[in-house]
């Protein structure tokens, strides 16, 4: 049902979501060592997934523009585009 | 400052259009308990917030609300693609269509444009945190009401995600309120306003 790009994007988003959730928890529990450890472990996972995604499918932020194929930032799909049309 | 990430917080892929449902869901874009008001409320309140944990919490939840605004905009956009004139008339979407075509505009389900009167930034730690606790519950109720009309799982799935975030934010704001009162006089939390008065810590 999902193509490879969408699968990788979902993996990236789910790890990012764990980071968002831990971030809010740590805001009100800044000395919780277990949560800090989890944040760091998800952060490493996220960085690896982000690098792999951006190399293959294009930038998530403008900092991820590689530059050797032009300004890839403006290439689609944009996040609000539905799957089928987006991946044409 | 802010930087855009070219992805949704949670995926939205809607196959079938449904302009009637879009007209209800747009209330979480620009309605009285919507994501735009939520984001502006927290991002504005944080300037007067005297405690670092709460400055962080308001910043991070305010930013997450912007991601939710984007998800709601995406849902509305995908629900109103490829509409025929007959579908627009039959669904009652014509009243919205005449002013906005299928552009996404911040308004309530009843068509009232967004107004900053939906939110408060009172410059008082306890008042602002109570406003936020109420705001998260009001948004949760709105999502519950939207779910009553969602028979399409493609729509219900991201709406359920957003509903759960209201509950998590409510929990975090409750902890924030506890952090604030722990710093105040336990015999009289209202002895002074730590956002404004210089006495106390």
Which tags fit this structure?
heterodimer; A: 88 residues; mainly alpha; 3 helices; 61% helix; B: 201 residues; Ferritin
Overview in brief:
The complex is a heterodimer of chains A (88) and B (201). With 88 residues, chain A is mostly helical.
The CATH architecture name of chain B reads: Up-down Bundle
**C-alpha end-to-end distance of chain A:** 15 Å
Protein structure class of chain B: mainly alpha
User: What distance lies between the first and last C-alpha atoms of chain B, to the nearest angstrom?
Assistant: 29 Å
Please bin the fraction of helical residues of chain A: 55-70%
Number of strands of chain A: 0
How many helices of chain B? The count is: 8
Uncertain parts of chain A: none
Query: What's the β-strand tally of chain B?
Result: 0
User: For this structure, what is the CATH homologous superfamily of chain B?
Assistant: Ferritin, core subunit, four-helix bundle
Catalogue the unreliable spans of chain B: none
- The helix/strand order of chain A is HHH
SSE series of chain B: HHHHHHHH
- General shape of chain B: elongated
From the 3D structure, determine the CATH topology of chain B.
Ferritin
Largest interface: A-B, 27 and 31 residues
Overall radius of gyration of chain A? 16 Å
Overall pLDDT of chain A: 93
State the helical fraction of chain B.
55-70%
Mean pLDDT of chain B: 96
What's the CATH first level of chain B?
Answer: Mainly Alpha
